Amino acid sequence: MIRWVLRLAVALVLPLRIVAQSTPGSAITIGRIDTVWSATLKEKRPYLVYTPPSYADTTYTPRTYPVLYLLDGDAHFHSVTGLIQALATGINGSRVIPEMIVVAIPNTNRMRDLSPTNTTVDHNGKPSSSYAGGGGLSDFLRFMQTELIPRVDSAYRTSPYRMLVGHSLGGIAAIDALYTMPATFNSYVAIDPSLWWDKRLLLTQAKPYFSQKQPPGRALYVALANTLGADDSLPNGHYASIVQFNRIVEAYNASGIRYGFNYYAGDDHGSVPLIAEYDALRFIFAGYKLDMQQAMSRPASVTAHYAQVSTMLGYRVLPPEGIVDQLGSMAAADTSTAVEFRRLNTELYPSSGRAWAALGSMLLARRDTAGAIVAFERSTAVRPAHRGTLETLRKLKGGK
User: Fold this and answer.
1) Which stretches does DSSP call E strand in 18-90?
2) H or E segment at 342?
3) Which tens digit of pLDDT belongs to each residue from 45-83?
4) How confident is the model over 177-216, as pLDDT tens digits?
5) Cα 355 from Cα 397, distance rounded (Å)
6) CA torsion through residues 271, 116, 131, 201, sign
7) pTM surpassing 0.85?
8) How many whole angstroms separate alpha carbon 128 and alpha carbon 241?
9) How far apart are CA 147 and CA 303, in angstroms?
10) Residue 50 bridge partners (DSSP)
């Protein structure tokens, strides 16, 4: 009877297979569109939301996710969500960054919203009327801080970690947000930022800002594209301003902000966002990846690893229930190690009926019937209608 019960118990915790249903003509959905009325901007603002595949998966205990806020969202939504899908969800075993929610903000008046001042000069300091109507960035950031972010936090399971990613004008918006609201976001990505704006206004603020201690656990990544033309005897104002910003940060950074910079010689202003987004994610979440092969034989290393991740990100990050479950399955040949992983999941997720059922299965493998009964009883207490677990308990207790 023990062998029959063991087979049934193992079946209760085998990973679910998700089979794609290919229906000709059906749409592929990567996100949803929502709107929020902004009293600050006095207009209705649309935003796009991507949630990772595990967000709606009921196999494991629902968890919270960091949020990446993306400027020029209509232009970069596909690239950023695609990168997160590839790097975070376990495709080909890749989990080098955490799964994240992406909130992309399309433009209504880009010049107004993403520039800190109204300027009358171009990137080389020459008079220009092309940039009239700027100067609304402070209102736009206030909209994000007081209206959009609270709306997202109330509608989705978010963790207390936020990224802000911007390109060009969006890049200086990200740097301005770092200067003016450093407690709102944890990490900032400025891709080929327009630091030439208004006679390099934001550049002049870099030295005093980075020379002083700032809130802990912050990161900034800056990307520089190759915008040097064949006829440029000297670097143009756009290129030169970013180079100068990098020199200032590298020379005076006493802020505690973790800083990354890269020059993309093979990419221009338009092509640089995709590769810079990838590199920025890898830089900001360097050290996030868990070595599954090493962890498989050392359960204690899992909790130690995520303790380090928690320190890096500034909030408590639990080992994902699915990862610990997978490690328990990988270690099944060594039942004592497998039991350690199963117990770890019940400690981390005491309300998970699946975790308790998995522990019961491993205890049965070690012929610990009494312990298995306790585990299965805990499982049924959480999910009392689960017929498989109830049947296992009935058999273990001598029922017919």
Assistant:
1) 32-38, 43-50, 65-70
2) helix 335-348
3) 999 999 999 999 888 999 999 999 999 999 999 999 999
4) 999 999 999 999 999 999 999 999 999 999 999 999 999 9
5) 21
6) negative
7) yes
8) 18
9) 36
10) 102
